[in-house]
Amino acid sequence: MMERSGNISRKDFLKNSALAMAGIGLSPVMMNAETVSKNKALPHNGKLILKNVRLETGFEYEEGEVIGTNTDLFLVETENGKITKISKNDPKAKAADAKGFLMLPAFRDMHIHLDKTFFGDKWQAVRKRKGGVKGMIELEEQIMPEILKNSTYKAEKMIELLQSKGTAFARSHVNIEPTSKLDSLKNLQKALDKKKKSFGAEIVAFPQHGVFYRNSVPYLKEAAKMNIDFIGGVDPYTIDGAIEKTMDFTVQLALDHQKGIDIHLHETGESGLKTVEYLIDKVNENPALKGKTFLSHCFVLGKLEKIKQEEIAEKLGNAQIGVISTIPIGNLIMPLPLLKNHNVIVYTGNDSIVDHWNTYGTGSVLEKANLYAQLYGQSTEFLLSRSLKLATADLLPLDDKGVQQWPKNGDDADFVLVNASCSAEAVSRISNVESLIYKGNIVY
Known about the structure:
It is a single chain. This protein has 444 residues and is an alpha/beta fold. It has helices spanning 10-16, 18-21, 33-38, 132-148, 151-164, 183-194, 217-224, 236-240, 243-256, 270-285, 306-319, 336-341, 365-375, 381-387, 389-392, 423-429; strands spanning 47-62, 65-79, 82-88, 96-97, 102-105, 107-112, 167-175, 200-206, 230-234, 260-265, 293-297, 321-325, 346-348, 415-418, 433-438, 441-442.
């Protein structure tokens, strides 16, 4: 096992890199795509060479148990957004110096609302909720016009926060309803367009105020023709008063426009279970939706008896319907390991970061992986390393047998450098992100 470097500050990391030696004055702050593209000495869809890159090479065993992770230092080259060469380390190479930091796949936030946030504006804590979800809808109808005035700017600030935590990609839900109409979507698309060279995203058209409760239908139909990826939804029984009518509309709209589906489901009673079972049936009737359909939150799974949990988990796995959880800690314990055992894709995200729904959320999905490991007792070297999947949307450097599966030549040049000796330590300690590279470009 190679000895990893000691802790150094991000300032020293940048100062000692080959980029700094080339005379580029990089400060330890977010570098946006414009900075990268205007400075010709920085890589921009060109070639980037990194030396002293720590990569995981296999597991260390004792009596059949994984007790450590072996690593070594490598020279990594990227060009035109792809990893092109991984070779034996050359400390004397003319290259940016990764200082022995661990290279991991770039993180992915798979459930967030970039379009409506207070982040980047003055601090506001959540106020006492009145009238349940429908009361929140009424509140949104009052405050969304004000939020929209600078929502593009705030989305950019939120993206920069995510990047500083190692996230290079997000799935963002965006309000589509009669108050915002398509403005929330258009404003977010402006922010994403400005960040497209440094950040990737997919968009869910989200009828926060109900499909029929506030008649979002015409706006959803328009949004489906635009540059979005998923048709969303929220609690069809609680808000619209009808599971079948709302789900049928959602499924058909997705099919008509070749989109995926991502439904917010907070309901924990009979209506929640019926919604899950109805969606499973609709996906099985329409195989084109397999692998493209997700249930966000899906709290009802945490309320079911163990036998029913097993049954629904098996059905979700067979239908290739994923579950996206923000990993709540409290009285409700979601059966996430059980879902994984049934081959259900499980993702995570920050959801809200400082808005009228929630004032928590640090922007770190590595922290979410840590919470998952704590909550479900994933404390061994092996299980901690597997928990990294939550931060990377299922991509790991080593497979379950310890065989290196990432990075490979031809992989996307999307990765982070973290101050950790291995994946297990990165998850356990929520190790500091020292740098983020997206499509071969130094973003952070």
